[in-house]
Amino acid sequence: MISIKKFLERNVEELYRAVLNAYLAVLHAIGDSGVQACPPVGNTLRENLLRLEAALSVEANPDVFQETGQKVEAELVRWGSDAAEYFKSRAGDVKELMLILASTADLTMERDQRYSRQFQEFTGRLQAMVDLNDLAMLRSSLVRSAIDLKACTEAMVEESRTLAARLRQDVNAYKTRLEDAERLAVLDPLTGLDNRRRVESAIEHRIGQKQAFSILLLDLNDFKQLNDTCGHLAGDEILKQFSSELKAGFRATDVVGRWGGDEFIVILDAGLGEATAHIDRISRWVFGDYSIRVAGARRKVGVSAAIGAAEWQAGESSRMLLERADTDMYRHKHARTNAGNSGP
User: Fold this and answer.
1) Under 8 Å between Cβ of 187 and 257
2) Residues 77 and 99 in one domain
């Protein structure tokens, strides 16, 4: 019989691969569970865990396993904090709506109690009429009671209508505030474009629907030099102007976002051919001279960007798609740099 030690020695590579695959599967499952539990912050967790998976697949040893475990723990702590904050904000929204409904319920109960007492008075008055023998007095009492009852009913209907209108107004105001808050939560505060979280969510949605789409990644050329020479306020002004022009160059159904820093991203519900056509359009209509104020004077600054394009392929993750577009973008950026350095 083969001893356990000899068995392990002969199968150490196989066992190593099995352990590694199990570890990677756990990381993948954690990422997917994070998205399902809280989609607004889960996509970031999954993308970060996918990066750890990729790094672990390339090199795995005890030290790397330990380092990866620490990074995973940090990612989960960050995700837990973000998810708690998200649900806390949603709980506050629900609490506000419940207070509106509770206030309306209190007013409705108060109204019903008030009119209930009035109807009880009418009932008592009608019962008292039974003992009347004078027909004229009986007729007069009935007419007066009918008039009072009609007035009471009309007042109740009008008050109910006013109460319902007030409730609709309060709920609509709450809905508007909620929509504004949700809209601002997915916008980049400087440029007004969709922020990275919104873009990631849009990509994941299209992948989940198996919907054909392409992305464009843009990285502004020489932006650091602009910041260094003109200042960060001038840099911010360029980012805002460029964002406005870029947004205007696409359809309302396209997603145009700021990916981070001086990088931008566009999601097009189209194939690579149409996406490539947009690159030429951007070069002609978005790139060019922009006017900014520097040291109290207007100054023209030429703005362009390296652009990478990639079309989503069935079975491809968002990370893989973004990596292809990123590679294409930096290929163009390096080609431009080399062209600039090849002069006489």
Assistant:
1) no
2) no
